[in-house]
Amino acid sequence: MGKIFDYNNNFFAGISRVSDTIILNFLFVICSIPIVTIGASTTALYSVSMKATRDEDVYAVKEFFKQFKENFKQSTIIWLIFLMVFTFIGIDFYMCSLMANDTISMIFKFIFTIVSIIIGFIFIYAFPLVARFENNIKNTLMNAILMSIKHLPYTLIMLFLTLMPIGGFALFGQYWGQIVFLNTCISFGVVAYINSMFLNKIFNKYIQE
Fold this sequence. Notes:
Layout: H1 10-32, H2 38-53, H3 60-70, H4 72-97, H5 102-132, H6 137-150, H7 152-171, H8 176-208
Helix pairs in contact: 1-2, 1-8, 2-3, 2-4, 2-5, 2-8, 4-5, 5-6, 7-8
Keywords: Membrane, Transmembrane, Transmembrane helix
InterPro entries: DUF624 (IPR006938)
Transmembrane segments: 22-46, 77-100, 106-131, 152-173, 179-199
């Protein structure tokens, strides 16, 4: 009976992990509301998630705000770069839809779709790299490109998972209320936690080298 109430057993460890994931998800959503802070929020989310998946003893709230503050400048600059690129691609897609020639329109849409996927690859790695390694912005983005290509199977899985919280609106728009609830409560945290298991496996190879 003693083991049932042992706070170090798997049951209580699982409960603690779920509660931390919910807390991190809520902090991520709240701190991302100004839009410009999404980069810092993402870095903080992945910093705590990667430590959690490495079984490090970490206080979620304290560590989140610590990483948010320490990596704010670099994460924000990287996020603004991504935001400009995504905006540019969005405008390009809109311009394609206005083209009179459907064939040319489809060709350009295909090209911009490939570009979007590549940018998505870089996005997946950029903020976790900021969270795990000390580097300048140029090298961080270059490393993100190289890692995303070298570890393509993991990259595709992580990109799919990352798009799920947003993609849910496109696939299940009639349940937008439930999707908003899940995203606010746990979706982003769960995705970050799963992705962090892959990211730790990838990053450890470079640390050992």
